[in-house]
Amino acid sequence: MRIDTDKCQACGACHTICVTDAISHDDGFGEIDADLCVECYVCLRSGICPSAAFVAEPLAWPRILRHTFSAVQPVQSGSGLIDGRGTAEMKTNDVSGRYGPGEVGFTVDVGRPGLGATFADVERIAMAVAAAGAVMVTGNPVTGLMTDPATGAFRDDVKGERVLSCVLEFKTDEADALAVVETLRRVADEVDTVFSVGCIARCRDDGTDPARELLDGAGVFRRPNGKTNIGLGRADPA
Amino acid sequence: MTHTLHRQGDAEALARDYVVLALENRAHVPPSWRERLARRAPWLHALLKRIYLGSGLGRLLDRSGVATGDIGLDWTRVCHSRRELRDHIARFQRADTGRSVVVSGVFEEVRGCLAELGLKPHTVQYSLGCFGRTERLPRPEILEITTLCGHHLVSPRRVEELATEVAEGRTTREAAAAALGGLCLCKIFNERRAAELIVRTGGAGYRCEEDRS
After folding, report:
1. Where are the domains of chain A?
2. How many domains is chain B partitioned into structurally?
3. Residue B1 domain-assigned?
4. Contact B104 A225 (CB under 8 A)
5. Are residues B154 and B108 in the same domain?
6. Which residue of B has its CA nearest to A97?
7. Is residue B107, in this structure, part of any structural domain at all?
8. Which residues of B touch A100 (CB under 8 A)?
9. Which residues of chain B make contact with A93, given a CB cutoff of 8 A?
10. What is the pTM of this model?
């Protein structure tokens, strides 16, 4: 994204719209820091500029990754490597069976809420949890950027790219779940951003689930709110 | 995607904030009449689509994500009470769409609704909170609002700016909440809750660009 200086009227309307604070106004006219910009297009889509000075420029690989992961609508990268920001995760687990009995899934939203992250930071987290026994979920677009999902190593050409957030998705056996949480705590000191962690489990027939027991038993913080798949999905329709 | 997972706030506020998503299982659910029409008579489907989208009402419905399905249910909806949530789930239960339905909200309240309807949770996802450089985050009152948009398309500084305008009487809290909600493309932003929260922020933390040096 850039600001057309011929159109910008230095009105200041866009001072606060950028989610990553990439817009500065040193001389009254807006300017976008290309490193901080994650190509989310919020500034453009908001319509906040009265003179339509925001210009979406064509994005080449690997910068296109910024837009793909930061804008809500997925776009084609042209590389065939990625397809949108994330997967359906547990939302369709009643049909997909992605997370089965005895497994605990994790989602790590790197850069969220709002700080953004580079794939170098994402790699640090991925390599740490992979070493702790986590298995990356295939089909997730972040996994698709790894050269070796078994180690969590990423392609060199993408590591400098910054996104508003992206979702690392992996799972472990129940027995290893707490070790993964501990690993996430440790690697938190090694990254230059924040990440939000989700923990997924399939419920037993009585509605209880092993993740809650593991987390509460170990005194791991969890919010009172979260997501519940209520089991109405149908794999074999009548 | 995890965009409805990490909403923040106290139990009282969260008890008035639920998101219900209904997801199509493309590989398993039989095609809708529209999909069948598109396959068998693509020219007729294209013509009807053009007429539908050409009308103002069609554009409005499509943009709002409301009632574009065959059965008139909202595939994405924010509910503001346990009762509203229960009634909405019950409609899905009766409609038997075959879609996967996911509810985001306080677990105990959701479980209570499900029990009343004879349902049980199939899979759950807990939020373990935020790790890392949390000292770089905005103050909690602002995060409560910005996390209402799961993709974080709502700028903290924009929230502060609008909170200041509300505090100074230059706009209403409802108008400010609507302006913020317009940035959330998934339509999961709870504008009613945001309108309450934005008054509490008071805009005290906002400083204009010139003051940031």
Report:
1. 1-57, 89-217
2. 2
3. no
4. yes
5. no
6. B123
7. yes
8. none
9. 100, 122-123
10. 0.85
What letter represents residue A17's amino acid? Answer: I
Write down the CATH number for the domain with range A89-217.
Answer: 3.30.70.260
Task: Give residue B102's domain range.
Answer: 14-116
Out of A15, A192, A205, closest to residue B133 by CB: A192
**Quick one: B33 and B105 in the same domain?**
yes
Q: Which residues pair with A117 in a beta bridge?
A: A163
pLDDT values of chain B reduced to their tens digit, one per residue, 213 residues: 467 899 999 888 899 999 999 987 654 444 555 666 666 676 776 677 666 655 555 544 444 333 334 455 778 899 999 999 999 999 999 988 889 999 999 999 999 999 999 999 999 999 999 999 999 999 999 999 999 998 889 999 999 999 999 999 999 999 999 999 999 888 899 999 999 999 988 765 444 333 333
On whether both B102 and B191 belong to a single domain, the answer is no
Among the partner-chain residues B6, B111, B122, the one whose CB lies closest to the CB of A231 is B122
Q: Which residue has the tokens 């019950």?
A: B90
- From the CA of A29, how many Å to the nearest CA of chain B? 12
Rounded Cα distance, A16 and A116, in Å: 17
Q: Select from A99, A195, A231 the Cβ nearest to the Cβ of B131.
A: A195
SS3 label, residue B138: coil
Residue B86, in any domain of the structure: yes
Determine which of B126, B135, B157 to mutate to test the interface with A (most A C-beta atoms within 10 Å): B126
Mention the CATH class of domain A1-57: alpha beta
How many angstroms separate the CA atoms of B140 and B130, rounded? Answer: 12
Closest-CA distance of chain B to residue A122, Å: 12
Nearest CA in chain B to A100: B123
pLDDT band at residue A83 using 50, 70 and 90 as cut-offs: very low
| Cα–Cα distance measured from residue B2 to residue B127, given in angstroms and rounded to the nearest whole number | 10
Short-list A111, A191, B126, A129, CA closest to A143: A129
